[in-house]
Amino acid sequence: MRVAPPLNFCLSLLFVTATLAQPAASPSAAKPARPRLVVGLVLDQMRWDYLYRYADRFSDKGGFKRMLSEGNSCEQTLIPYTPTVTACGHSAVYTGTVPAINGITGNAWWDSQLRRTVYCTEDKSASTVGSSSAQGKMSPKNMLVTSIADELRLATNFQAKVIGIAIKDRGAILPAGHSANGAYWYDNSVGNWISSSYYMPALPSWAEAFNQRKVPDSFYAAGWSLLYPAASYKASTADNKSYENKVFGEGFPYDLKKYMGKDYGKINTTSMGNEMTLAFATTALLAESLGRDDITDLLAISFSSPDYIGHSFGPNSVEAEDAMLRMDLALGQFFDLLDRTVGKGLYTAFLTADHGAAHIPEFSKENKLPGGRVFMGKIIDRLNAGLEKNYRIKKLIVSDDNYQLHLDHPLLDSAGIDADEVIGWLQKELLKEPGIDRAFSIKDLNTVPLPATLRKMLNNGYHPNRSGDLQVILLPGYIDAYGTTGTTHGLWNPYDSHIPLLWYGWGIKKGITQREVYMTDIAPTLAALLRIQMPSGNIGTVITEVLK
Length: 548
Fold this sequence. Notes:
By secondary structure, this protein is of the alpha/beta class. The protein has 2 domains: 381 residues, Alkaline Phosphatase, subunit A (3-Layer(aba) Sandwich), CATH 3.40.720; 104 residues, Gyrase A, domain 2. The chain is built from 19 helices and 19 strands. Strands 1, 2, 5, 6, 7, 8, 9, 10, 17, 18 and 19 form an 11-stranded mixed beta sheet that branches. Helix 3 crosses helix 12 and helix 11 runs antiparallel to helix 12.
């Protein structure tokens, strides 16, 4: 374990502080100037407009106002691919590239070589560290490129420490990259933070001690009440709408005591999931002495709870607003901690999202806006039944992952059935369904009439072994639904693809960047800031406006 030399710490602090006032180190300098710590903050399902919808409610002591007023906000940050889902977003942020190159084409995908659905971070050769469940059989092996975290490790001859943390395994593993010191995620079957044998043989003592505190139970005991009077939540629709999931009951305040010691997954769908994540991240920061010497470390934190809350209650809910206001305060406290431990001005932080979300369709209809539900699961059942009637073969469609239909090609080949004929029939049937805007063979992607932006996003999401045969595009405002409540994301539309991007701290120029930039520009910008190589699949470009 690296330990900062105590006698030289003050001198190092003075040196780095003085360096901030100097021009950037010349190429001939023996050692490039770098921050002590990079903190990546990804909010799972944060729409860009949240920054301004709740702006008058963010605290002067909170994190959002600090980043907006003292840092740089890239206002027009877009996701350059589809599907806009969690695994793809976290991978793109840290690899600087798109699913077509990094291979993470969804949270899961049909693998044409393995002929089965593959979860993005599954690793059957790994075992769980920290519990007896199977939730730790994970690693980053399915990601085909390096991340900016890997490049930092390489640039420092593996002296830099890299740690990834999130409730969701994919939110911790994919950002941390292949060579991380550790990635930790939450096992909701037992209420523990766990890892994988890919990273370590056993949890460090600080993680074991954290688990022994049974933090979820303490949050359950407190319950979830509104931070402010209910009448002040004017940026949201009324509480307890019929189109919201009844996760805990009939609206605020939520009494969660009944889940203590029983259901450790409920905390994920509360604002306290964010606070628990930060508590674990803070413990890791202090125990691992991150940012305490002149070798830059990286702490990647993903907040999964906004996604659980958004899916259940929608982006216009009181729950979403309260969670964002509490997130603001928690981030402010975290920055205060970094100021005290790493040193104000000695760390760099960025905040972004992996995707946004659509309005709940019934909310849209309630307000005379377009939108609706497409029940793809039921549609696939009907299509498979039709194919069986036509060809006397069961389940020719093996998957509808990521708004694409995947056919069983070995079965088609053995039966002598023309795949193009099947795709043509499916296309006609799909276009009869309300809410489906387009359906076409992916082989025709670059010839069918499409706006250039949409064609580019679809191409950027295509990987030959992990993508399907037929692409489905829904009408704006429509979602791929599994039930009659809640909402989701995953499409090209701005509500899914326009995300926040805030920069703050060491090496960051104060201001606002209004030109269009992309999620894939984050990693190369960090590479330029740190003076290290871009990730191995990088296609993004440096956002020069944010750098001093």
